[in-house]
Amino acid sequence: MKRKTAKEILAESFRELVGNKNIDKITIREIVENCGYSPATFYRNFKDKYDLVAWEHAQGVAAIMNRIGEQDYTWKQTLLDGANRFLREKEYLVNLFQNTTGHDSFVQYMTEINFEALKKHILAVNGNAKLTAAEELYIRIYCLGTVCLTCEWLLGKYDASPEFIADVYEKSLPEPLRQYLL
Fold first, then answer.
1. pLDDT digits (tens, 9 = 90+) for 140-160
2. How would DSSP label each residue in the chain?
3. What is the 3-state secondary structure (H, E, C) of 8-56?
């Protein structure tokens, strides 16, 4: 039986509170009291509530990103699954972006999660040959661009379906990375 980690329990506690309150109004004390933990336990796991939010959301996206390379799981399907997950989480994420300073933490976590997952996949495809500095930069700029665009999409700047977003992300993949993902 897999037991939940302190991070997972704290994240669940936070999610429960978000159902009734704006994110910026929730305190660390409320989070820990809701799940029976101490503030010390919280701070051993997270630097602040925005760190918790970014970590929690990144875990779900990492699960999708880590499927890259599985049999019959295409890059396009990875992008579509990610876009659909973001759409399902839209209310929560918009609350995060509009009522906190957590936008920067979210972008940082998501960019890093995506960067590491893509790098891992590309290394597996190329036989673990060291990536060039240029390849690493292409991965980083692609990840940063898609994460920032996702934030804008969720905030309503673009009226687009998850399928359209996934298509745009697939078509915007830098040429030097296409051989590894398409």
1. 999 999 999 998 999 999 999
2. -PPPPHHHHHHHHHHHHHTTS-GGG--HHHHHHHHT--HHHHHHH-SSHHHHHHHHHHHHHHHHHTTTTSTT--HHHHHHHHHHHHHHTHHHHHHHHHHSSTHHHHHHHHHHHHHHHHHHHHHHHTTSPPPPHHHHHHHHHHHHHHHHHHHHHHTTSS---HHHHHHHHHHTS-HHHHHHH-
3. HHHHHHHHHHHCCCCHHHCCHHHHHHHHCCCHHHHHHHCCCHHHHHHHH
Instruction: Calculate the CA dihedral of residues 9, 118, 135, 86 and round it to 10 degrees.
Output: -70
Which structure tokens are listed for 54? 């970014």
What's the pLDDT band for 101 if we cut at 50, 70, 90?
Answer: low
pLDDT at residue 56, rounded to an integer:
81
